[in-house]
Amino acid sequence: MLAVACISGVAHGDAGGAATRGADPSTLRAARAFEHGEGVRKDLSWAASLYCQAAREGDPEGLYALGWMYANGRGLPRDDATAAALFSLAAEAGHRQAASMLAVVGAKGDLPECMRPPVVIANGLAGVESALVRVAVEPDPFAELSPAKRKIADAVEKLAPRFSIDPRLALAVIAVESNFQPGARSERDARGLMQLIPETAARFNVKNPYNVTDNVRGGLTYLRWLLSYYQGQVPFALAAYNAGEKAVDRHRGIPPYAETRAYVRRILELYGSDRHPYDARIVTPSPVVATGVPGTS
Fold first, then answer.
1. Is the pLDDT of residue 142 over 70?
2. Which 3 state secondary structure label does DSSP give 185?
3. How many helices (H) and strands (E) does the chain have?
4. 177, 187, 245, 259: which one is catalytic?
5. Among 18-32, 126-140, 195-209, 282-296, which is the least confidently predicted range?
6. Does an H or E element contain 177, and which?
7. What is the rounded distance in angstroms from the CA atom of residue 131 to the CA atom of residue 113?
8. For 293, which DSSP code?
9. Which of 89, 23, 83, 92 is nearest to 51 (CA)?
């Protein structure tokens, strides 16, 4: 087999005359930006997630770019068979570079998890239902909100299902993050209802973090990504929301930070469940999901 160096020398961006179809061009632009750190912090995991989004929509450049990342072990475990499966689909769509790469990576295997049908896990039970888990928390912590907070809660309850997030979980995060204050700003420059730092706001295209809808949309998108990354394990997703997924991955679980552990514990008390449905197609799972959920005390 040829050395990986010959693979890494192939640049993205030329579909060899194939007509790009399916994906929004902005998805590919964002993926390239995060892959190479162009104008944003370099984030190979998020780049792979965006490329896979384009690939699911049949975009030949998305298929090729994701295959290239697998072929080079760039932000993903190296897997020539998976790369070949992606290159094969891209080649069928007319991507000439992908066709030439098939001779390099060898026999094709399975497509990556992010391109397979969604798998929803709820409270430990596998299924394909799209309905969200509704947990019973007595008394309901959000039953008696002030009029101003109720207005925000009503907006969140309408938005959350669009992102496949249980409204109860979204409200719990907002309650702990900002106490329903749209103008909240922390010492670390986290802003708005879901306390988005500038890098996270940019990552999820939030233009005005103090706008209720814009902020909540960005926060829900991030929460959906984290739940997919940690396969529905709410404690991991919450710890990453607070401390970053790199910290959770580095510590192979909830980091030993007093703030993060208290944060996770408080939201779990409000939400009432440590599991949530997730879409396995969004991102390749974190390496920590097989380790079990450590205690949060």
1. yes
2. strand
3. 13, 2
4. 177
5. 126-140
6. helix 167-178
7. 22
8. P
9. 23
Q: What is the pLDDT of residue 222?
A: 95
Residue 177 is among the residues annotated as catalytic for this protein: yes
Please, what are the domains in the chain? Answer: 4-114 (1.25.40.10), 120-291 (1.10.530.10)
Q: Which residues on neighbouring strands pair with residue 121, listed in sequence order?
A: 126
- Which amino acid is it at 265? R
Mean pLDDT rounded to a whole number for the chain: 82
Provide Rg for the chain, Cα atoms: 20
DSSP assigned state of 161: G
With both helix axes pointing from N to C terminus, report the angle between 167-178 and 234-243 in degrees, rounded to the nearest 10. Answer: 30
Kindly state the tokens that stand for 48.
Answer: 């792979």
Q: Are 88 and 24 in contact (CB under 8 A)?
A: no
**Is residue 184 over pLDDT 70?**
yes
DSSP 57: T
Written as one string, the DSSP assignment of 230-269 is TTTBHHHHHHHHHH-HHHHHHHTSS-S-HHHHHHHHHHHH
Alpha helices for 122-185 (secondary structure H): 147-159, 167-178
Residues with Cβ within 8 Å of 272's Cβ and at least 6 positions away in sequence, in order, are 135, 136, 137, 168
The position carrying tokens 């991030």 is 222
- Say whether pLDDT at 5 is over 50: no
Give the pLDDT confidence score for residue 50 in this predicted structure.
Answer: 83
The answer to whether residues 111 and 85 touch, using CB atoms and an 8 Å cutoff, is: yes
Q: What is the pLDDT of residues 88-116, one digit of tens each?
A: 999 998 899 998 998 888 888 888 878 77
